[in-house]
Amino acid sequence: MSGRWTARLALAAAGAAVLVLLVTAGFGSVVLVGVGVGGLALTAGGVWWLLTHTGWIRVLAGVLVVAAPLTVLVLYALAGLLWVVLVSLALWALAVSAGRAALADGSAPGMPERPAVRARRPFLIMNPRSGGGKVEKFRLAERARALGAEVVVLDPDRHQDVAELARSAVRGGADLLGVAGGDGTQALVAAVAAEHDVPFVVISAGTRNHFAMDLGLDRQDPSTCLEALTDGVELRVDLGRLHAGEPVEGDAGRVFVNNASFGVYAEVVQSPAYRDDKARTMLEMLPDLLTHHSGARLHVRAGPHALHSPQAVLVSNNPYHRGDTAGLGRRERLDTGELGVLAVQVGNTAEATGLLLRGEQGRGLTAATAPEVVVDADAPVIPVGVDGEALLLPTPVRCRLTPGALRVRVPRHRPGVPSAHPPMDWRRVRRLALTMGRVAAGREDAT
Fold first, then answer.
1. pTM, to two decimals
2. Are the beta carbons of 397 and 375 closer than 8 angstroms?
3. pLDDT in tens, 338-361
4. Is residue 208 within 8 Å of 185, Cβ to Cβ?
5. What pLDDT was estimated at residue 277?
6. Which 3-state string (H, E, C) describes the chain?
7. What does residue 145 show for φ and ψ, rounded to 5 degrees?
8. CA 391, CA 267: separation in Å to the nearest integer?
9. Cα-flanking dihedrals φ and ψ of residue 333, to 5°?
């Protein structure tokens, strides 16, 4: 279906959603909407109180989070209008989904691919513990060796410096480096590959595999990533770098392939109790962290933006997609040459409720891009989560990007980066729906 017809479907579904309420409930439709919005507001407020309080207030907040939506549903059912609300919500969901699909039609192409010559001496590092044992499950070491690669499987019982292993391999003549492991290990070896300008292969054997996802690799079967050794193409991607403390000449910084997190999350993962009981540790620490009763107060400069005391800051190697909740975890490109910045700054229940209800349009969320981000604090050292690794770094922490620093070798045939729909814009959807013919469609594209 073309973008114009998908946009028309979106408008028709939105109109039907409103019409169902008006025809069936009449003036009562306004009351229905008001009751629903009120229930959402109470639920959002309850979530904030649940996270920022302890003791009996937290218990009451938990009751409110459960009771508010249930009460709304019961009121709808007693009025005999529950089916009306459900049908209207389904039509509205269809309208939003179709609208985003229409706006995504004809989206920008992915990162450019370059032909690649097969490596003669590939060197791969594999972590047998990553992803619950994917290296063994998919026989990655055996398959890689059959393709001519030298493979080092890390010893889970002792610490090994993966960066030094990679450097030693390059000194020995390796002309390609690769990692089967988590994103933290990927970043350490990617830094060596960028330093020596040799191709880098990502094998999706970690738990979340965010970097692999944004490269369009198969995250379900990591063995398919080995096809990059025999039939691969090359992508040039950016690398993020952290420089901690006062500037030092020649400091290359700590590389990150995904992101660096500051504030609440970074503070929580530093706790020794976090690994044993994540949920309990977060619930115990969040009240003081969110209300600034503990933890460092951050000060962030990102281009023209200056943020004082945000609770959480995420600096990413290229910006994350912000069109929908599902898209927040992925980046459509890794070669834009800019850092992405997401910061949450909430001071009270009203602001928290607005943020939870309005998402990226809420007042408490700042989203920006910048070539450099500086994070300072009222403490000499702050916790930082770098690609999932918990670190303690001296302030200030400068985040920068090195454009096109990493040569990534990927399989020629791969799933591709999941399509991320753009933010909903009803004006653009209406204009697109009203265009006629190819000339009009071209005029819409030009806007």
1. 0.79
2. yes
3. 999 988 887 666 666 666 655 555
4. no
5. 64
6. CCHHHHHHHHHHHHHHHHHHHHHHHCCHHHHHHHHHHHHHHHHHHHHHHHHHCCHHHHHHHHHHHHHHHHHHHHHHHHCCCHHHHHHHHHHHHHHHHHHHHHHHCCCCCCCCCEECCCCCCEEEEECCCHHHCHHHHCCHHHHHHHCCCEEEECCCCCCCCHHHHHHHHHHCCCCEEEEECCHHHHHHHHHHHHHHCCCEEEECCCCCCHHHHHCCCCCCCHHHHHHHHCCEEEEEEEEEEEEECCCCCCCCCEEECCEEEEEHHHHHHCCCCCCCCHHHHHHHHHHHHHCCCCCCCEEEEECCEEEECCCEEEEEECCCCCCCCHHHHCCCCCCCCCEEEEEECCCCHHHHHHHHHHHHHCCCEEEEEECEEEEEECCCEEEEEECCEEEEEECCEEEEEEEEEEEEEEECCCCCCCCCCCCCCHHHHHHHHHCCHHHHHHHHHHC
7. -65, -35
8. 10
9. -140, 155
CA angle 207, 128, 147 (to 5 degrees): 100
Least confident stretch, 149-163, 298-312, 313-327, 353-367: 353-367
pLDDT tens-digit profile of 106-131? 555 678 999 999 999 999 999 999 99
One-letter amino acid for residue 331 of the chain: R
The residue behind tokens 């190819």 is 438
Peptide bond into 396 cis (omega under 30): yes
Closest CA relative to residue 432, chosen from 159, 153, 201, 102: 102
Among the listed residues 376, 446, 438, the one whose alpha carbon sits nearest the alpha carbon of residue 2: 438
Amino acid at 392: L
| Residue 339 structure tokens | 């850092």
| Cα distance between residue 334 and residue 404, in whole Å | 9
Q: Are 164 and 152 in contact (CB under 8 A)?
A: no
